[in-house]
Amino acid sequence: MFQILLIANRGEIARRINRTAQAMGIQTVAVYSTADAMALHVQECNEAICLGEPEAAQSYLNIEKVIAAAQQTGAQAIHPGYGFLSENAAFAQACADAQITFIGPGVEAIRTMGSKSEAKACVQPAGVPLIPGYFGADQSLNTLQAEAERIGFPLMIKAVAGGGGKGIRIVNSAGELQAALESCQREAKNAFGDATVMLEKQIIKPRHVEVQVFADTHGNVVHLFERDCSAQRRHQKVIEEAPAFGLTERQREAFGRTAVQVAKAVNYVGAGTVEFLLDARGEFYFMEMNTRLQVEHPVTEMITGFDLVQWQIEIAAGLPLPATQETIHIDGHAFEARLYAENPDQGFLPAIGTVELWEAPEVIEFRTGTHAGRTAGIRLDSSMRSGLAVSPYYDPMVGKLITWAPTRAAALQKLADALAQLRCVGVKNNLAWLRSLCLHPEFAAGGYDTGLIDRMKMNPETSIDIQTQAALAGLARWALHNQATSKNITDPLATLDGFYSSAPPLREDRWHERERSFATHSHVQVQGHTAIIQCREFALSCQLDPVNATQKLPRLTGQVCNGPHAGSAFDLIWHGDQLSLHVGAEQCSLQWQNPAHIRVDQGHDANGVAAPMPGKVFAVFVNVGDTVKKGQPLIGLEAMKMEHTLNSPCDGVVQAIPHPVGDQVTEGTELIHFSEDSKAA
Length: 681
Description:
By secondary structure, the protein is α+β, with helices and mostly antiparallel strands. The protein folds into 5 domains: 4-103, Rossmann fold (3-Layer(aba) Sandwich); 132-201, 2-Layer Sandwich (Dna Ligase, domain 1), CATH 3.30.1490.20; 207-456, D-amino Acid Aminotransferase, Chain A, domain 1; 466-597, Glycoprotein, Type 4 Pilin, CATH 3.30.700; 608-674, CATH 2.40.50.100. 25% of the residues lie in helices and 32% in strands. Strands 14-13-10-11-12-15-23-21-20 form a 9-stranded mixed beta sheet. Helix 4 packs antiparallel against helix 5 (107-114) and helix 12 packs antiparallel against helix 13 (431-439). Mean pLDDT is 88; it is low at 487-504 and 598-605.
C-alpha cells in the first residue's frame, strides 16, 4: 500500500479523498494555487505545496508542477479527483514516466474514452447500442452541414473531449447550425484544448441514466448499479439519485451488463461511469464513458455501503476488487443536490464573493462505508466554511448535500428538509431553488426527463404569507438600526425596549424581492424577549432567542407566536443591505433600499449592460448605432469555464461598446451603452 498520496485537485473532492486516505493510514499531500491558500483541503492534508497563480493553467492544470510536487514530497501515487487532470492521458503518461502510480485507468483507456467519437467506435463491435450521429475526423463546415442534414433535426453538437455540460449545443434547424458550431467549438477549445465536435440525433424527452463500474488488474469487472442524473440545467446535473426510479429488473440487469461490456472493451482498470440515454419506449443508448470518479459517486456509496475512493486506491495498489457482483446489493434510496454559488434568477449565472455565513444541519461529513451516515441519513461533502471566498477562477460548486432513507419518498423529503436548514449568506446561491425543485410534483413523482427544468422555468416562490414577511422584515430593520446605534454592538436587543418611545408610530422601509418592490410600515416594541411588531393593519408577536455574542453578522432568531406561521422558528440574517429571511422551512431574500444608496435615476431603465461577473469578452453581436430589441443578444462573456450571452434589458440604440472581443473585464464593467434619448421605455 502507498505511504504518501498526492491529491491533484481542490475543493470538496480533495477533502473527500483526503478523508479516506488518512483513514487508511496514508499520508496526504495537497496542492493549491495562491487563490486557495486558505482552503480547507490545504489545512487538512498532512502537507501542502503551492503550484502557482490562480489560473488553472498555471496551477492545477500544470502537469510539470504537479509531478514536481509529488517528487518533492515522495508521493508514490497521485489521485486526480474529477475535473482538471483526471481524464488527461498526457498526465497519466507523465505519472508513469516518473514512476508514480496514477489512480485511474490506463493511458490508452483514457485516450479512447476521452474522445466521444473514438469511444463509440470502440464499443460498437461489442453490440452496444449507439445514438445515430456523425463521429468522423473531417471537421469542415461542408461535411458537418451535410452530416447534419443526413441525421436530421433536432440534433446535438458535442465536443468530443467534453464533460461537465460544456461544449454542448442543441440545433433545431439548418439555419442555426453554423453559429452553434462556432460557439461550441470555441467553448470546447477554451475548456478542453480540443475544438473537435461530433453530431448526434437528439432523443426526445430522454432520461440520463449512468452506471458505476469498477475493474481491477486481475480481470474482475463489476457494476454498482445505476444513477439517474436527468435533473439538469444548461446540460449540467443538479440533483442525482440512486437507484433510477421505475426501472424493471430486466432493464436494470441490461444496463449493468452493457456497462460491464463497455469496460471490458477497453481493458478498463479502476472506477468508471458509463452514461446512457433512456428513451420513452424503454430503449437505451450509449453516450460516453467517464474515466474517473463522478461528482455524484456519494449516492452509490449510500445505497451500496462501499467507499469508492478506498476501492480506487486499493485497485491502484494491485489489490483485487473487495466484492463480487453477487455480493453487491441495493439498500434504500439516495439523493444528491449540488450546491452552487449562482443566481437562478439570472439564468444560473455563477456568483463570486465571500461566504460570510455557512451553517449546515446536523450532518456527517464525507462518511462512507457500510451504513455510515445512515443514522441521520444526511451527508455533506463541502469545501466551504464561513469567511471563505468563492473564486472566479474555478467551478462555482461549493458542496453536495446527500440524503439516504429506506424509500425514495423519505429520502427526497429528507433532502428538502436539510436544504431548508442550510445557511449560505454573502453569495448568491441555489439552495432555495433546489428545495423548490425537490417539492415540484413532476420531480417528486420520479421518471422525469432531462427537459424537466427547462419546461418548469421555475423560480422558488416563498410561501411565507405577506403579513409575516413584512412584519419580520420590519423587525429585522429595527434591530439592525438599533445595533448600529447601540454601544453594545453584539446585542441589538439590549436597548430596544423603549428606544423608540418618541419615534413616529410607523416607520417606512422599502424592499425588493427579485422583481417585486414593496414597503413595510411598522413599529417595534420589546419587553424582555417578546417583540410586538405593529404594522398598518395587523400586529405580530414573536419570542426572541438570546443573541449569540460571537455572531459576526447581525442576526435575530426566535419563534412566531401568532398568524399563519404560528409556532414556526424564524431566522433573520443581515449581510450589507441584504436580508435573508427564514420562517420554518421557507426562505426568501429581501434587498433593503438603503436611502443612502438610492440613485436619482433609480426606477428607470439602465443605460446599458454591465458584466455580471469577471470574465473575457468572446463575442460582440451588435454594432454602434444598431437599434436593438429587449432580449436581443448583445455580448458574449466567458467566465468560470462557460460562455454566457448577455441580452438587452430594453429596446434602444447602441451608443458605445467600450470593450472589444478579447478584453478582460471585472464585475460591474459597462459593456454596452445605450443612447439616452433613443432608448425605449
